[in-house]
Structure formats: structure tokens, C-alpha cells
Amino acid sequence: MNTIALLPHSQHLLPGGRLKLVISRVCDIRMVTEAMTNKRPFALGMIAPNHEPETIRHIPAIATTVSIIDFNTLDNGLLEVTVKGINTISVSTLTMAYDNLLTATYKPCVQWLPININNDSQLLADKLQLLFNSIPEISHLYQQTSYDNATWVCQRWLEVLPIDIKYKQSLIHHPNANMTISFLLQLLQNHHLINN
User: Which of 57, 81, 123, 170 is within CB 3.0–4.6 Å of 71 for a Cys-Cys bond?
Assistant: First the structure.
């Protein structure tokens, strides 16, 4: 069984995504330092926005391995790292170290293969592009985008949508993005965003 350091976080990341994280806890600084020194990934686990990492006992089963692509020291002395999502993993058990750093045992998940955008899923790509263009702090993270890949588009939607984690996990658990495409199109239709 493989092991990896795991950071519970209320901002969610999937393969192909990018995210800036502010690192403040001593255990997380240790995790980031070891990841950078040894050039190895750590994992990002999904938690709800109202949970604190110190109180987490149950991390949802699917997490994402990430690698650090940039780092910066902020004016307040905290560390800011930019990470990119690599692969999804299935977490089996969690162990907490003396400083609260979590280590997970895991197995690799089936990774979603690319799916070409078609006439139906084009709407998802168009709406995502509009959203990203309206949020500079997200759009500037992506030097390259894949709006022609429905899988990439769906993963970005799942990262930003404020839906319950159990629903996100259920969709991610599927072997491909087809179920998520249907879900997102239905969601847009329900919120009358199809023709807006």
C-alpha cells in the first residue's frame, strides 16, 4: 500500500487544476518543505468550508495528488504555494503524526480520459470560460487551458461549484466524465442558465 502526506482543504482540486494555498500550520510547512526537498507530491483532501483541519477525523475517500509548481513568502511571513492536480487516489486509512500532519494509505483511482467537446457539452466550456474570465485570480493560474476537452472542463466545474462534497465524490467516483457532463447540463438548465 502506498502512503502520502495529506492536507485537508476547503478549496478543492482535481487533476489538471491549479490552486494557490496559504500554508500556516507547522505540520503543513513540514509537509511542503519535505515535498519540495524530495520532489514528491502530497495529497489534497476535500473538506467543507466550515471545518478546521485540526478537527477532521473523516476525509472523503477520493483525494488528489498534487505537485508544487511555485512558491512565495507573503508579507506576513506565511508561505504561499501554487499546486497542480496530478491524479485522483482512493484513501484507505489516515494516521496523524505528533504535529497533526496526516498521512494516508491509498490506491490509485481510474483516471478520467479526455473527451472531445461536442455540441451538447460546448455550453459547459463556454460558461466556464466566462466564469474564469470574470475571476482573474483563477484565470491567471492557467497559462494553458483545455476548453476543447470536456473532461478538463468538468473537473474545473467540480472544483468551483459549491455543491455538497458527497455529490462531488460520487461524480468523481465514476470511471469517466460522462455522468458529470449530464449533471452539469441539468444544473445549468435548472438554474435557467442554458440560454443566458
Answer: 81
